[in-house]
Write a sequence for this structure.
């Protein structure tokens, strides 16, 4: 048996250990990035979250710039995020909410507890809008430009540091 | 006394479920009336990755979003859409990550080449064996 062959198992073992250490020290990022960033918003008409209000097409003459926030009354991080969204609203950023898998009475209760930062709220009872956006959970936030193109995705709750980032994103898209 | 209270509390604790109050989507756990369409839907759902429980397919997952995706797949197949079209519609939104079927992207080349390389290695070893035996 040649020398190279004799050391092959050791080499395989070292390779294995090195790759295990590498993956343990830098774990795989489990967030799912939307491929819709850079594309037009889905051509959908979203029903309003509250009965008696009109449904609204996502694509229209004045698409944005606007922030679209997927939230839910049953989503715990959304409670903390509500305060940051209120801060964005105070700074003049218009926010459209989309309540995922929610009932009107639960949405109303959530807004009464945590404040209402939304200019409008759509309803997405079967996650259809969410899937069309390439979004995989709540909360998630998208920034839309005036020509209906999705320009930015924020995965997870918006925290203190994300407020200026999103505001800047929005401001940069103003005509 | 305090221990007892803590014990009782822990027994009565209800796990916090991050689930909505809405019932599952209509077609999420219901078979399509046409068995051929249902078979197409099943085959596709087994190859689509759940976005919540990332190791599972949407056919296996109990996550609500997986249920909504099963509803979407069954509705589209019932409407006459081809499974391949539904798969590529989802790939356009989530990337090829959403599909378990290996693609021809460069990242998957080693996967396709590995069996060939192993076969070649086996043939090489076999040839050496036979040649050695011939000499003996």
């Amino acid at each position: 048996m040649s020398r190279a062959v004799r050391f092959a198992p050791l080499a395989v073992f070292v390779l294995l250990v090195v790759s295990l250490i590498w993956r343990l020290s830098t774990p795989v990022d489990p967030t799912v990035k939307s491929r819709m960033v850079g594309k037009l918003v889905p051509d959908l008409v979203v029903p309003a979250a509250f009965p008696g209000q009109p449904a609204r097409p996502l694509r229209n003459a004045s698409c944005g710039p606007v922030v679209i926030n997927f939230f839910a009354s049953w989503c715990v991080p959304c409670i903390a995020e509500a305060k940051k969204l209120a801060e964005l609203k105070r700074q003049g950023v218009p926010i459209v909410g989309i309540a995922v898998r929610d009932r009107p009475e639960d949405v109303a209760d959530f807004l009464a507890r945590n404040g209402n930062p939304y200019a409008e709220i759509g309803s997405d009872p079967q996650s259809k809008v969410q899937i069309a956006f390439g979004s995989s959970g709540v909360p998630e936030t998208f920034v839309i430009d005036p020509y209906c193109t999705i320009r930015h995705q924020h995965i997870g709750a918006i925290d203190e540091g994300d407020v200026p980032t999103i505001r800047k994103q929005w401001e940069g898209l103003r005509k | 006394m305090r221990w007892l209270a803590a014990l009782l509390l822990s027994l009565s604790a209800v796990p916090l479920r991050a689930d909505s109050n809405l019932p599952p989507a209509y077609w999420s756990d219901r078979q399509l009336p046409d068995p051929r369409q249902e078979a197409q839907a099943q085959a596709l759902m087994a190859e689509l990755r759940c976005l919540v429980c990332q190791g599972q397919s949407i056919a296996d997952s109990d996550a609500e979003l997986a249920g909504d995706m099963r509803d979407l797949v069954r509705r589209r197949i019932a409407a006459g859409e081809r499974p391949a079209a539904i798969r590529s519609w989802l790939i356009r939104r989530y990337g090829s990550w959403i599909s378990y079927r290996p693609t021809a992207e460069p990242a998957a080349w080693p996967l396709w080449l590995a069996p060939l390389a192993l076969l070649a290695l086996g043939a090489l070893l076999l040839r050496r064996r036979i040649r050695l035996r011939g000499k003996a």
Q: What stands out?
A: DSSP finds five helices and seven strands in chain A. The interface with chain B takes residues 30, 32-36, 72, 74-76, 100-103, 106, 125-128, 130-134, 136-137 of chain A (CB under 8 Å). The helical segments of chain A are 3-25, 76-90, 104-114, 128-132, 162-172. The two ends of chain A are 74 Å apart (CA to CA).
